[in-house]
Amino acid sequence: MNTKGTQTGAKLKILLVDDHRLYRDGIEAPLSGVKDLEIVGSVSTGEEALSQYPALKPDVILMDIMMPGMTGIEATRWIKEQCESIKIILVSSQVNKEWVSAGIQAGIDGYLPKDVEKSTLLEAIRTVMAGGRFFTQAITSLVFEDFYNHKKNTFAKGKCDNHKTLTKREMQVLILVASG
Length: 180
Known about the structure:
Blueprint lengths: L3 H5 L3 E6 L3 H12 L4 E7 L2 H11 L3 E4 L8 H11 L4 E6 L4 H10 L3 E4 L4 H12 L4 E2 L1 H20 L11 H11 L2
Parallel strand pairs: 1-2, 1-3, 3-4, 4-5, 5-6
């Protein structure tokens, strides 16, 4: 695997951002036992993430979406504008195509529902650290659902022609999801 932790022997640094302390503790416990990972911080708001990430220097931020004040999507946009190399995985209790789309536009590297297994979380972290993107099957299906329904309706109405049916941004999202 081509990750920072395995190349140099240094641990991958993780920052947890979620307004629920119990959830952050619940993520920290199983990740603490993983040899090549280190939890470098645990904060409850997007504003705290913005103020603390420069000093903590995380490799990956696991970010909730809905928090008091700044949302995880807004915090992601700010952080990515300052430091594009930080990998950000949105973690949410709800899978919603508007949030997935907004997250992709903000520059996320992955999106996970909060009910995933530890192995899926680790796979997501390692995938984004290797330069990839990570979306669960449910999220990929959600994004493609609109695309397929639109195509199906276009063909059913006899509108199958050479006109562009996706916006530029929709095409970018589709390409990102298809690339994993």
